[in-house]
């Protein structure tokens, strides 16, 4: 007897708010999946000591309820008329996602790298929750890693996670202190999956979403056109016209062809403190230094393969636009394009060129454009993104035009302190990222416990010798360091008797006047704020005290301030003159604000009010 259709249940499922649809930007990662391009990210974590598999499994089981998507799968709308929905997997079984293997002999770094490449090359099963973990035992012959340590390879599909939310995931699975072994683990919470929605209810839900907001597409397109016209006008009136599309050619390189299914990867581990010292000497940001180091390695690799183009390579640099208070585990990223100055032989000149590029790359219209593109991804007509991604790969559209960029370089700040797993120290963390046809090289920098791992992911056709390229990254960093150190010595000897004059002093003078004439607003911004202004080898400390009846702004280094702002002198001056926006500096990492959430909010509110006076 045929099952009776209950229209009441179908309508109730259609209006169930707990069934979440994936966003347009997340769907792009799903539709880009192909036999040669599985769209998952991965981490390789090396954990010292003999961590037992049963203990590891118990930890994962006890924390699964904290990551709901790890027990959910995607459910497609009939005929793929809309983006899929996240639903509870009624057949979820932890054993299908955890794999225990032993590292083959010789159990050294090369064997581990080859095994990780093989694991990373295999796609995830799109019919199940989109993650897997391989617990690799028997690491005995890797320098500086205790014998008997383990490696943990975690794969998660990009549709459910980006780099920044991935860092949040580390905080769920790992401990911040070594007492975890003594902690009493909570028992796994029972999983009671919601029943799968009916296909008809999914169609109703998708149709209702469109009917509820039928003007979403034209409104977003209208905003896009307005911002496009505005950005074009701005480019004609500013220095950005020097970097317009006619003067910004993207060369075709060996990184921009078809890729193979087999992944290759290598990594270089650098000291964060060493990179930061170079940044302090040269100005700019940590990201500028990483881009310059990678650019040096790319130039050498292409030159030695006799494939170095005349025009500089262009890097796609993803930027997290995630709100620091956001707890959602989804993709919140924008992009900027940076010329890597691979046409310049001198490393210092190359760095200066890149610094200028990053400053211009985060211009006002580019930032607005990134946000508008993020909106556009959510309103692409049903099925269009899927069709476009499939056609691009199937018909080799990449061969019909120049690529929009040559390489992706991403920098994700990770945990500053050590992480532990059941009392065992996490020695290193490496991030592997997906590559696709036309874009066969991606470099991911990840900072952890004073180290920066710069990991290169490619494929066997594009870069079979990724380990050689990683050596070039280390040597590029050493070369840049030597040149900057010598530059610093010559600067200090020639300017030993010269006191560096601050450009941003007028900022504090004007701020003092502003606070004096706006006494009634002091309670709103109450607090003590310390601003450290970088002046090359030295810093100026300024204290803003708004705790008394009369505000004071004076030169002083206050180590007990509730809020600390670190910014280079030239950047603060540009902010004061309106040449740079506060939001630009925050995204670029050119201003660092440390303190409680409340003190940050008050200071930013004060700064915005002052700048908009």
TrEMBL record:
Pathway: Lipid metabolism; Glycerolipid metabolism; triacylglycerol biosynthesis. Gene3D superfamilies: SCP2 sterol-binding domain. It catalyses: an acyl-CoA + a 1,2-diacyl-sn-glycerol = a triacyl-sn-glycerol + CoA. Its EC number is 2.3.1.20. Signal peptide: none annotated. It comes from the Bacteria. Residues 178-197 are annotated as: Disordered. Residues 23-290 form the O-acyltransferase WSD1-like N-terminal domain. InterPro entries: Acyl_transf_WS/DGAT, O-acyltransferase_WSD1-like, O-acyltransferase_WSD1_C, O-acyltransferase_WSD1_N, SCP2_sterol-bd_dom, SCP2_sterol-bd_dom_sf. Residues 331-480 form the O-acyltransferase WSD1 C-terminal domain. Keywords: Acyltransferase, Glycerol metabolism, Lipid biosynthesis, Lipid metabolism, Transferase. Residues 513-603 form the SCP2 domain. The keyword Amino-acid biosynthesis does not apply. It is an enzyme of class 2 (transferase). Belongs to the long-chain O-acyltransferase family. This is diacylglycerol O-acyltransferase.
């Amino acid at each position: 007897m045929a099952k009776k259709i209950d229209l009441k249940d179908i309508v109730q499922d259609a209006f169930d708010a707990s069934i979440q649809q994936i966003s347009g930007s997340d769907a792009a990662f799903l539709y880009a999946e192909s036999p040669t391009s599985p769209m998952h990210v991965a981490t390789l974590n090396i954990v010292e000591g003999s961590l037992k598999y049963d203990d590891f499994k118990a930890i994962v089981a006890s924390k699964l309820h904290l990551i709901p998507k790890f027990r959910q799968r995607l459910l497609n709308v009939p005929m793929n008329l809309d983006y899929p929905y996240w639903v509870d997997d009624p057949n979820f079984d932890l054993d299908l996602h955890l794999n225990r293997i032993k590292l083959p002999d010789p159990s050294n770094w090369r064997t581990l790298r080859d095994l990780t490449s093989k694991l990373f090359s295999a796609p995830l099963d799109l019919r199940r929750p989109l993650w897997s973990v391989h617990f690799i035992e028997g690491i005995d012959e890797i320098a500086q890693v205790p014998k008997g340590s383990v490696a943990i390879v975690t794969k998660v599909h990009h549709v459910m996670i980006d780099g920044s939310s991935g860092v949040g995931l580390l905080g769920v699975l790992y401990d911040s202190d070594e007492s975890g072994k003594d902690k009493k683990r909570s028992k796994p919470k029972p999983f009671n999956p919601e029943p799968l929605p009916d296909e008809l209810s999914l169609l109703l839900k998708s149709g209702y979403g469109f009917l509820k907001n039928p003007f979403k597409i034209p409104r977003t397109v209208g905003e896009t056109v307005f911002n496009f016209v505005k950005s074009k006008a701005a480019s004609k009136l500013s220095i950005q016209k020097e970097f317009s599309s006619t003067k910004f050619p993207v060369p075709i390189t060996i990184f921009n062809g078809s890729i193979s299914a087999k992944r290759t990867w290598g990594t270089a581990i650098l000291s964060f403190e060493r990179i930061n010292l170079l940044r302090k000497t040269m100005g700019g940001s940590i990201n500028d230094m990483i881009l310059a180091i990678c650019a040096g390695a790319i130039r050498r690799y292409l030159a030695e393969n006799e494939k170095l183009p005349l025009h500089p390579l262009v890097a796609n640099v993803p930027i997290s636009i995630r709100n620091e208070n956001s707890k959602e585990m989804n993709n919140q990223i924008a992009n900027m394009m940076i010329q890597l100055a691979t046409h310049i032989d001198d490393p210092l000149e190359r760095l200066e060129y890149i610094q200028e590029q990053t400053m211009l790359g985060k211009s006002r219209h580019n930032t607005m454009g990134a946000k508008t593109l993020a909106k556009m991804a959510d309103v692409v007509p049903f099925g269009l993104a899927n069709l476009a991604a499939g056609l691009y790969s199937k018909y080799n559209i990449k061969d019909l035009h120049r690529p929009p960029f040559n390489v992706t370089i991403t920098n994700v700040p990770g945990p500053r302190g050590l992480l532990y797993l059941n009392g065992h120290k996490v020695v290193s963390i490496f991030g592997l990222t997906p590559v696709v046809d036309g874009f066969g090289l991606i470099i991911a920098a990840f900072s952890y416990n004073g180290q920066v791992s710069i990991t290169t992911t490619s494929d066997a056709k594009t870069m079979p010798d990724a380990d050689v390229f990683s050596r070039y990254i280390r040597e590029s960093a050493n070369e840049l360091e030597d040149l900057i150190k010598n530059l610093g010595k010559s600067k200090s000897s020639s300017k030993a008797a010269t006191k560096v004059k601050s450009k941003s002093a007028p900022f504090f003078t004007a701020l003092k006047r502003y606070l004096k004439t706006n006494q009634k607003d002091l309670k709103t911004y109450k607090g003590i704020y310390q601003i450290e202004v970088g002046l090359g080898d030295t810093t100026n400390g300024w204290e803003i005290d708004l705790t008394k009846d009369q505000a004071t702004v004076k030169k002083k280094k206050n180590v007990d301030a509730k809020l600390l702002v670190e910014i280079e002198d030239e950047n603060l001056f540009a902010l004061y003159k309106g040449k740079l926006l506060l939001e630009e500096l925050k995204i670029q990492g050119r201003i660092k604000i440390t303190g409680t959430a409340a003190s940050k909010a008050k200071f930013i509110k004060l700064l915005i009010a002052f700048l908009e006076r």
